[in-house]
C-alpha cells in the first residue's frame, strides 16, 4: 500500500507554519480579489510570501497550517483573543486542491480547539463576505450566527456562543 495514502497517513492537525508553508500559501492567493476576501483590506496584493509572517501579524495572533503530520500544508488559519474567553478566527484558507471536500469545517474545528487550549476560549467570532457561499455554509454548519449590528452590507460579523448557551434574542 502507498504509505502516503489517507488510510495510513497521520490525521489532520495544526502545526506552526515554516518558510515552505508560507511560500505555498502565497500561491493560494493569486489575485487581489481572493486576497481581500481571505485576509481583509490590511494585506496589500501583491505581497512577498516570505514577508507573510510579519504582514499577517496581529497583536496576540497565533498562526497555523493544517496538514497530515509533517506533510505539505492543506490550509492556513489564525486566531487572536478579542477579550477574555473570546477568540477571533481569521485568515482561513484551504489549498485549492483541498477545496470542495468539506475540510473548511475540519480546519475551523481544529482552530477552535487550539484557541480553547491556548487562550481558554469558549466563544468564537469571525468576519466573512456575505457572498462567500462555501465559507458561510461551513461557518453556519458549525453554529456561527450573524450579528446584525456588527455586520454591514458586504460582510457578516459572526459569533459562535459556548455550547449550551441560550440563543441570542432577535
Ligand atoms: C472558504 C474555504 C476555506 C471553504 O472551503 P471549501 O473547501 O471551498 O468548502 P467545503 O468543501 O469545506 O464546503 C463548505 C460548505 O459549503 C458548501 N458549498 C460549497 N460550495 C458552495 C457554493 N458554491 N454555494 C453554497 N454552498 C457551497 C458545501 O456543501 C459545504 O456545506 P456543508 O458544510 O453544509 O456540507 C475555501 O473556499 C477557501 O479557501 N477560499 C479562499 C479563501 C477564503 O475565501 N477564505 C474565507 C475567509 S472568511
Would you write up a description of this structure?
The protein has helices spanning 19-28, 32-39, 52-55, 103-119, 133-141, and strands at 12-15, 62-68, 75-83, 86-94, 123-129, 145-146, 155-160. With 170 residues, the chain is α+β, with helices and mostly antiparallel strands. It starts with 11 loop residues before the first strand and ends in a 10-residue tail after the last strand. Helices cover 28% and strands 26% of the residues. A hairpin with a 2-residue loop joins strand 3 and strand 4. The chain has one domain: Aminopeptidase (3-Layer(aba) Sandwich). Strands 1-2-3-4-5-7-6 form a seven-stranded mixed sheet, sandwiched between helices. The chain is built from five helices and seven strands, in the order βαααβββαβαββ. Residues 1-5 have low confidence and may be disordered. Bound molecules: coenzyme A (COA). Coenzyme A (COA) binds at residues 34, 37-38, 92-94, 99-105, 128, 132-135, 137-138, 141. Coenzyme A binds at residues 34, 37-38, 92-94, 99-105, 128, 132-135, 137-138, 141.
Amino acid at each position: 500500500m502507498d504509505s502516503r495514502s489517507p488510510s495510513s497517513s497521520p490525521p489532520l492537525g495544526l502545526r506552526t507554519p515554516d518558510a515552505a508553508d508560507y511560500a505555498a500559501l502565497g500561491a493560494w492567493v493569486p489575485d487581489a480579489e481572493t486576497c481581500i476576501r481571505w485576509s481583509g483590506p490590511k494585506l496589500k496584493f501583491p505581497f512577498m510570501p516570505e514577508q507573510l509572517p510579519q504582514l499577517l501579524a496581529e497583536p496576540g495572533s497565533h498562526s497555523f497550517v493544517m496538514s497530515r503530520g509533517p506533510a505539505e500544508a492543506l490550509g492556513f488559519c489564525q486566531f487572536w483573543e478579542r477579550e477574555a474567553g473570546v477568540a477571533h478566527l481569521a485568515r482561513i484558507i484551504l489549498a485549492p486542491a483541498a477545496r470542495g471536500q468539506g475540510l473548511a469545517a475540519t480546519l475551523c474545528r481544529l482552530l477552535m480547539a487550539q484557541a480553547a487550549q491556548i487562550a481558554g476560549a469558549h466563544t468564537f467570532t469571525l468576519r466573512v463576505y456575505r457572498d462567500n457561499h462555501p465559507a458561510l455554509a461551513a461557518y453556519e454548519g458549525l453554529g456561527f450566527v450573524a450579528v446584525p449590528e456588527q455586520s454591514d452590507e458586504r460582510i457578516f460579523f459572526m459569533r459562535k456562543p459556548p455550547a449550551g448557551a441560550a440563543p441570542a434574542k432577535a
